[in-house]
């Protein structure tokens, strides 16, 4: 057997605050499907991170761990190729976070643009849960515990990668050895899908998302609501393609690019009705979602099997995290009894 050249180590994380939707599918699940054949890929269900602003609603976090795991399997993540694991069940991640926290200042955490924006959105003002403020450190622990070299993220998460690499450099310099590994972000080529209302990114909490388990009728309704161009009142009026959510969706789901270019041309010129475009979009979305929905239904009937997949993946992930943490411990002189 020939030795496998060292494969990239990929780590993705999803805060388990809700099931995944079509925006996640286009933004990241498709990329993960491809990566699972090329990399050592860890999919981390970040329930500890979800809890940083969900204490009191913690049961939803637990439910969503299972839902997101079902989403992964339903879109075709193969547990024989990708390692699906639960953050809270890998204590080494929390231990590593404790140590890394000593290498970052509170003011640096407060300057993290992602955190700043999230604090604003949640209206925390000065009443920020300490766990929330330090979640970038816990995220750095997630990444470094697996010695991930590649982290697929959306643009909003880039400050997290930067902060992780700062911690890696600071830790390695402190112990005088390269134990932790720096990582690079892998930005998804298609930006996240807009929500059907055209106002923001697709997000369940903004009520503008299409879920991966959507029934045919829900898809019809969502397509009906999908924002086009508020000035396109008569069929013959020229229409706008930019900012038109139906076209954003067709960019993602219509594989016949020539046909799509022709539709855009006709829409701009005037004479193409929104209803005709929406019929095409409905057809495309039904075709994408139907197999996912059916697989979701099958997996949802077998919770024991989901737990088995999670148990097995978490065991494998824990081995890797524990090996890294043992090195960290030794480097800091904390291996008293070894
Ligand atoms: N912060 C990510 C999110 O908002 C989730 C996450 C947790 C993550 N740990 C990670 C992402 C590690 C990448 C790497 O969904």
Tally of extended strands? 5
Order of helices and strands: EHEHHEHHHHHEHEHHHHH
Radius of gyration: 22 Å
The helix fraction, in percent, is 40-55%
Level-1 CATH class name of the largest domain: Alpha Beta
Question: How does the helix and strand content classify structurally?
Answer: mainly alpha
Could you explain the architecture of this structure?
The chain has 338 residues and is mainly α. It folds into 2 domains: 213 residues, 3-Layer(aba) Sandwich (Rossmann fold), CATH 3.40.50; 82 residues, Tyrosyl-Transfer RNA Synthetase (Orthogonal Bundle). Helix content is 54%, strand content 8%. The chain is built from 14 helices and 5 strands. It has a 3-stranded parallel sheet. Strands 4-5 form a two-stranded parallel ribbon. Strand 4, helix 9 and strand 5 form a beta-alpha-beta unit. The longest helix has 29 residues. The model has no long low-confidence stretch (mean pLDDT 94). Bound molecules: tryptophan. The site of tryptophan (TRP) has 14 residues, from strand 1, strand 2, helix 8 and strand 4. The site of tryptophan has 14 residues, from strand 1, strand 2, helix 8 and strand 4.
Give short descriptive properties of this protein.
mainly alpha, Rossmann fold, Tyrosyl-Transfer RNA Synthetase, 2 domains, three-stranded parallel beta sheet, two-stranded parallel ribbon, 14 helices, elongated, binds tryptophan
Quick structural gist:
The chain is mainly alpha-helical. It has helices spanning 22-35, 47-51, 58-75, 91-100, 106-111, 113-122, 130-133, 135-145, 158-175, 216-225, 245-253, 257-269, 274-300, 303-331; strands at 9-15, 40-46, 82-86, 150-153, 184-187. It has 14 helices and 5 strands.
């Amino acid at each position: 057997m020939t030795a496998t050249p060292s494969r990239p180590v990929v780590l993705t994380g999803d805060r388990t605050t809700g099931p995944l939707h079509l925006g996640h599918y286009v933004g990241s699940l498709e990329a993960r499907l491809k990566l699972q054949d090329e990399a050592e890929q860890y999919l981390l269900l970040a329930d500890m991170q979800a809890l940083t602003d969900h204490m009191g609603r913690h049961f939803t976090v637990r439910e969503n761990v299972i839902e997101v795991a079902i989403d992964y399997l339903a879109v075709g993540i193969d547990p024989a190729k990708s390692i699906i694991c639960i953050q809270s069940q890998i204590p080494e991640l929390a231990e590593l976070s404790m140590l890394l926290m000593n290498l970052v200042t509170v003011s640096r955490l407060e300057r993290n643009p992602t955190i700043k924006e999230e604090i604003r959105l949640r209206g925390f003002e000065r009443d920020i849960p300490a766990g929330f403020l330090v979640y970038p450190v816990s995220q750095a622990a997630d990444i470094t515990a697996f010695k991930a070299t590649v982290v697929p993220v959306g643009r909003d998460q880039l400050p997290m990668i930067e902060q992780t690499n700062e911690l890696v450099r600071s830790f390695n310099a402190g112990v005088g050895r390269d134990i932790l590994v720096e990582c690079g972000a892998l930005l998804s080529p298609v930006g996240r899908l807009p929500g059907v209302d055209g106002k923001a990114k697709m997000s369940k909490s903004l009520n503008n998302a299409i879920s991966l388990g959507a029934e045919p009728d829900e898809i019809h309704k969502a397509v009906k609501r999908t924002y086009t161009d508020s000035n396109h009142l008569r069929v013959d009026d020229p229409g706008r393609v930019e900012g038109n959510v139906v076209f954003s969706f067709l960019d993602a789901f219509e594989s016949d690019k020539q046909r799509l270019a022709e539709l855009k041309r006709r829409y701009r010129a005037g004479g193409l009705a929104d209803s005709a475009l929406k019929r095409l979009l409905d057809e495309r979305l039904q075709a994408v979602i139907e197999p996912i929905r059916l697989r979701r239904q099958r997996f949802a009937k077998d919770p024991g099997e989901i737990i088995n997949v999670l148990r097995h993946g978490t065991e494998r992930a824990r081995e890797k995290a524990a090996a890294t943490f043992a090195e960290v411990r030794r480097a800091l002189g904390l291996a008293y009894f070894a």
